[in-house]
Amino acid sequence: MRTAARFSATFTLPPRRENAAPGPRQSDKPWRMVLLHVSDPPHQRWRVAATALALAGALALVGCGKKQEAQAVVGQVIARVGPDDVTQPELDNELRLANIPLDKRSDAVVKAVLSRIIERKYLAQQAVAAKLDREPTQHLDLLRSREQILAGAYVQRELGAKVSAISNSEIDAFIQAHPNQFAKRQLFQIEQVSFPPQKDMQALADATKNLKSMDQVEAKLNELGIKYSRGPATLDSAAIPAEMLKPLEARKPDDIFFVRSRTSASFFRVTSVDEKPLTGDAANQFAKREIASELAKKTAQDTSSAAIAGAKFEGDYQRIMTAPASAGGEAAAEAQTAEKPAGEEQKDAPKN
């Protein structure tokens, strides 16, 4: 029996034995949207109040404050590119976006990052001089970039607040409700043959549906001229979907499984199973990540529903947007997930 599933899996691979025409090893991980918590401190608002008797003194203080503020801004300028300034906050933000910690910001690193900022400003000036910012496509791209940054910042702030509010009782309840990820966690040791996705995956599935061994799979792929890699791997019950776990638990000794995604495909056979309960701090941390993942998914669904419900469509777009899902739903889903929101990351299996 061979079970087909459209899921990714986390593989931990040692060096492999490859065939005569090996391709690059592909490794699929189950992923879920997790938006990182980025919480900016609230902006402080200052109010200057003065009575009529102290008006002269208040004006003097305000004038002094403005002068000091102007000096502070001038002091933040670290370079000039034509009419544009490069400030220390800009450099710090560039280093932050590049994930460069403070102890790694050597002169060479700062030079490279500052050079990148200067080059970008120079090219932007050339583009404006050539009036590219007035072209419709570039104007729309600029508008889209602004919307993406604002949307990502808002989602991160809202989701970050929800993740910060996850309680210990919620974590304990999640662990109790998902024994296969914690108390009954298992590591499936497998032998697998991996290869890049093919143009006609269904034809390949049909051609291999009656195969009973990994040697037969390997011979069939050689016959079809498909490059592959063969070797051992590990599947973690804590990191694979329940729909995939069920057939693994109900497997027979000669079962060959087939999994595929948009980036890779694999045939595999389970060779052994190790009991590996997840407990303590590692369990709590993993459970919190899982809860955050579910919050991210629900937040995305709620946001999409609210946005569509509040929108008004014109012309034929009313029909398009209110039509039920069709056979093109898979392509539409790919279009929606082609660009991941800021802060999104892949979910890994537990570390122990």
Helices and strands, with pairings:
Blueprint: E1 2-5, E2 17-18, H1 55-76, E3 77-81, E4 84-87, H2 88-97, H3 107-129, H4 136-164, H5 168-177, E5 186-195, H6 201-208, H7 214-224, E6 229-236, H8 242-249, E7 256-260, E8 265-275, H9 280-310, H10 317-322, H11 329-337
Parallel strand pairs: 1-7
Antiparallel strand pairs: 2-6, 3-4, 5-6, 5-8, 7-8
Helix pairs in contact: 2-3, 4-9, 5-9
Please, could you describe this protein's structure?
There is one protein chain. Strands 1-7-8-5-6-2 form a six-stranded mixed beta sheet. A two-stranded antiparallel sheet has the order 3-4. It has eleven helices and eight strands. The chain has helices at 55-76, 88-97, 107-129, 136-164, 168-177, 201-208, 214-224, 242-249, 280-310, 317-322, 329-337, and strands spanning 2-5, 17-18, 77-81, 84-87, 186-195, 229-236, 256-260, 265-275. The model is unreliable at 1-75 and 337-346 (pLDDT under 50). The protein is an alpha+beta fold and 352 residues long. The longest helix has 31 residues, at 280-310. Helices cover 47% and strands 14% of the residues. Among the domains are: 2-35 and 179-275, no CATH class; 57-160, no CATH class. The chain is extended and about 70 Å long. Strand 3 (77-81) and strand 4 (84-87) form a beta hairpin.
